[in-house]
């Protein structure tokens, strides 16, 4: 069958080294969006690497400046075969976090792709260069088999996702006609389990906040003043203890979604969290009681203390510090009002007797929560395509536990959004030694070749 030949072409792309060669070139470009000195590399990734690759596949591409001054550019590519055919928008990001060159283990470098056993090491292998390279490889496999896609495909690649996607919403809002499509099918993030095909339909939102207790000017000798002056570290520690119970149950009522909908419960029933080799074990008694681990991370809110500073931790002195601060984060789902997250925490702390703790929303770390119904026709269609290829059950997550700028596609562009991740939870994507699992990459090429083939066949949702 021709579908089988397309999948075989995708397998050969991996087995004969084409995937490794393409990814190696892309990993070698140090596209650190957190580094202001890498602006030229961000542009080079789009116009020097991705654009020529897309043009060889029959796409017309254009690079656009970011509407936010100083932020990385966008690439929009289109292969339009027939206006009456279904149109798919895909997305990826060419930027990566800082390379952290000195922290990689011996023999590994962030800008050099290296295979060791089943792992492909290099910055961006998992997030997100490897994932959009897989999708482009699947497109090429279908074109080599059928000579055409049988559908229209648009691709949006940004270079600022790791710094919060500045300008993405504005760009999409200004270019709705350019990006008009029937569905978003894209790839980012991890699978539920390394060996289980997964789709997710939105993301949890994320809001970072700073909590500050500033009691006085300067520190004071702990011998002369201990027992007389309030310690801001102790005050803040007790304030933090009112936000959750001792095992992480959230106590701020506005942060608690009303309930899990029946379709969400059904989708998450029986799913197990597995970070793969090297991943941490789930703490079974942590978080919201009476929920399964899958319901806690994909259907509920979670609060985390990311940093706590009191005095000088590196060089403590015998003085009561004047100030303490904590950087915290709420991951939240649909049903929580993002505009009320920080105000609700301020009210909660004041009611608990801690008006001296001041809450401010941090600029970084904000993505709204989004979710597509697991029974949406496009979800059912993608799930069926993946299972036809893999002959394994596909995990359907109403939303990712992490965050992505999915609201730009679901709200600004008004698209149903289906994400097919090609990584796994223990890939070290924001740490040294980032890697992509070779077996997942090969299977993902097969799966995406099947999806791309099926999009050109009758029966796609409209």
Question: Could you explain the architecture of this structure?
Answer:
There is one protein chain. This protein is α/β, with parallel strands linked by helices and about 450 residues long. It has 2 domains: about 1-205 and about 370-455, Zn peptidases (Aminopeptidase, 3-Layer(aba) Sandwich); about 205-255 and about 300-360, Alpha-Beta Plaits, CATH 3.30.70.360. Helix content is about 30%, strand content about 20%. It has helices at about 1-15, 20-25, 40-55, 130-145, 170-175, 220-225, 230-240, 260-270, 295-300, 340-350, 375-390, 405-410, 440-455, and strands spanning about 60-65, 75-80, 85-95, 115, 120, 150-160, 185, 200, 205-215, 220, 300-310, 320, 325-330, 355-360, 395, 415-420, 435. The strands form 5 sheets. The protein has a 6-stranded mixed beta sheet, sandwiched between helices. Strands 11-13-9-14 form a 4-stranded antiparallel beta sheet. A hairpin with a 2-residue loop joins strand 4 (about 115) and strand 5 (about 120). Helix 1 crosses helix 4 (about 130-145) and helix 1 packs antiparallel against helix 13 (about 440-455). It is globular and about 80 Å long. The two termini are about 25 Å apart. The model has no long low-confidence stretch (mean pLDDT about 95).
């Amino acid at each position: 069958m021709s579908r089988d030949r397309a999948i075989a072409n995708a397998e050969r792309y991996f087995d004969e080294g084409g995937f490794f060669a393409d990814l190696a070139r892309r990993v070698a470009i140090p596209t650190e969006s957190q580094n202001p000195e890498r602006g030229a590399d961000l542009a080079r990734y789009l116009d020097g690497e991705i654009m020529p690759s897309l043009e060889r596949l029959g796409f017309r591409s254009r690079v656009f400046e970011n509407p936010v001054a100083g932020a990385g550019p966008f690439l929009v590519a289109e292969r339009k075969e027939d206006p009456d055919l279904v149109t798919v928008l895909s997305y990826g990001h060419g930027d990566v976090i800082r390379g952290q060159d000195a922290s990689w283990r011996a023999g590994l470098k962030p800008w050099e792709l290296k295979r060791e056993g089943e792992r492909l090491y290099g910055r961006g292998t998992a997030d997100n260069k490897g994932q959009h390279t897989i999708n482009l490889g699947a497109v090429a496999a279908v074109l080599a088999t059928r000579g055409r896609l049988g559908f229209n495909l648009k691709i949006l690649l940004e270079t600022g996702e790791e710094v919060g996607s500045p300008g993405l919403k504005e760009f999409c809002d200004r270019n709705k006609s350019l990006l008009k499509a029937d569905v978003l099918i894209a790839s980012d993030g991890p699978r539920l389990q390394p060996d289980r095909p997964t789709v997710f339909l939105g993301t949890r939102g994320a809001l970072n906040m700073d909590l500050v207790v500033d009691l006085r000017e300067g520190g004071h000798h702990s011998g002369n003043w201990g027992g007389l002056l309030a310690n801001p570290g102790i005050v803040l520690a007790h304030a933090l203890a009112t936000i959750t119970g001792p095992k992480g149950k959230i106590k701020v009522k506005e942060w608690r979604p009303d309930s899990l909908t029946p379709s969400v419960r059904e989708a998450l029933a029986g799913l197990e969290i597995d970070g793969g080799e090297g991943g941490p074990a789930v703490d079974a008694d942590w978080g919201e009681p009476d929920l399964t681990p899958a319901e806690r991370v994909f259907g509920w809110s979670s609060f985390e203390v990311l940093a706590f500073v009191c005095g000088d931790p590196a060089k403590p002195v015998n003085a009561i510090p004047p100030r303490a601060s904590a950087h915290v984060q709420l991951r939240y789902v649909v049903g929580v009002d993002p505009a009320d997250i920080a105000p609700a925490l301020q009210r909660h702390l004041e009611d608990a007797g801690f008006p001296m703790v001041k809450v401010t929303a941090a600029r970084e770390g904000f993505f709204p929560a989004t979710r597509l119904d697991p029974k949406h026709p496009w979800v059912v269609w993608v799930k069926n395509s993946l299972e036809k290829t893999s002959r394994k059950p596909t995990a359907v997550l109403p939303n990712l536990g992490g965050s992505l700028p999915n609201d730009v596609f679901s709200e600004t562009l008004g698209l149903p959004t289906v994400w097919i991740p090609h990584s796994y939870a223990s890939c070290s994507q924001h740490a040294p030694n980032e890697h992509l699992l070779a077996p997942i990459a090969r299977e993902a090429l097969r799966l995406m070749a099947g999806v791309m083939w099926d999009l050109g066949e009758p029966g796609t949702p409209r």
